[in-house]
Amino acid sequence: MLVTPEYVFKDVTHITPEWLAQKGIRALVLDIDNTLTADRSQELPEEVAGWLETMRRAGVKLTIVSNGAEKRVRPFAEKLGLAYLYRSAKPLPFALGVARRRMQVKRREMAMVGDQLYADRMAAALYGIPGLMVIPRGPDLGAQVVLKRKWEKKHWQEYYDRGGKTL
């Protein structure tokens, strides 16, 4: 279960404050590429900007945790006014611990939102928090991610085979 999704959402905007509250989640750790925006993009889709504002108004704490370099992550996070960690080495869970302490929440009150099973989902599982997976927002531009996507297919299928739904 380290890689198979627990929850799958059509898009990050389908995660609601009400759903989070039902699960006791008060803080989200967010991936960037193909989660909040297209791969390597600095542009935030309007609907995601609205979603971030909805989360803020609901009191959900937000931190970006990305494997990207500082030159990729910092400008994007600063434009959104979000705390961030870069070169986080997901699936290693250490950056999730740093984010949790910064947001001052308990582990059980936090979830990871991302699109990659071998990075985001595995990091969440290793840290012991829910992984809220989203369908990627666009094509992957990195050869490494393209390769991992091929390996991920069987794990996505396991989720649906056991009755999992896209929320």
Automatic annotation (TrEMBL):
Source species: Faecalibacterium hominis (ex Afrizal et al. 2022)
InterPro entries associated with the record: HAD-like_sf, HAD-SF_hydro_IIIA, HAD_sf, PGPP1/Gep4
Name listed for the protein in its UniProt record: YqeG family HAD IIIA-type phosphatase
Transmembrane segments: none
